[in-house]
Design goal:
mainly alpha; 5 helices
């Protein structure tokens, strides 16, 4: 499984993000490209903040879904998302894509972080799993837009 912490995978993600444009249409799903690049910032922000949450994940979600976040098996299309990460308003692609690129860079720089707080929804991840899940989520949505 690729990881955002690996140089090759990191540069691949940036190249794919650069291949998007404001007129990119989804192959599946309802989000516009601006909404998608905004949505992709949410999990990156969780990693960057590395905040300690009182609740350490949902047991049912962890049991049924957690391992799929860092396995080689692609994420299914049309999966439900957290209400906090659901893009309901239109988003300005040119603004959001710059933020996304910056956040991808910031998460890549965390490749030497040794202490990770539990994910607020999925609970504990290893350093390796954090890198894989961040790559996998971005890969899923970049594929959604054909890049």
């Amino acid at each position: 499984m690729k990881s955002i912490f690996e140089e090759v995978a990191y540069h691949e993600l940036l190249d794919r993000i650069d291949a998007l444009n404001k007129n990119s249409d989804p192959i599946w799903g309802k989000m516009t490209v601006g909404q998608m690049v905004w949505h992709c910032q949410i999990p990156l922000g969780v990693a960057i903040k590395n905040k300690k949450y009182k609740k350490k994940g949902n047991p049912l979600i962890k049991f049924f879904f957690k391992k799929s976040l860092y396995s080689d098996k692609p994420l299914r299309k049309h999966l439900p998302t957290s209400p906090l990460a659901k893009a309901t308003a239109q988003k300005d692609f040119s603004i959001e894509v710059k933020k996304l690129r910056s956040m991808v860079d910031e998460v890549h720089q965390l490749k030497t972080r040794t202490v990770w707080e539990a994910h607020p929804l999925f609970g504990e991840f290893t350093h390796e799993q954090w890198g894989q899940l961040e790559y996998k989520h971005l890969d899923h949505h970049l594929q959604q837009f054909g890049v």
